[in-house]
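Question (not urgent): is this output format expected?
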Amino acid sequence: MNYYGRLKDLREDNDIKQSRIAEILQTSQQQISKWETGVQMMGVDKYIKLAEFYNVSLDYLLGVIDTPRNLK
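Got this back:
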């Protein structure tokens, strides 16, 4: 799986709208859409916030591993 597909899958699996993630990351819903479709890359700081929000490791969030690991 590519890294941007994981962003969308995690969000949808948790029944969260793009607008909610935009609030968390202090950006727009349109920007979230660009990240989830791979049009633009997201910064490391945003990945860290999402990893903390979803309580998953960065390697899972980035699609390096397929089995989620909790941060804590």
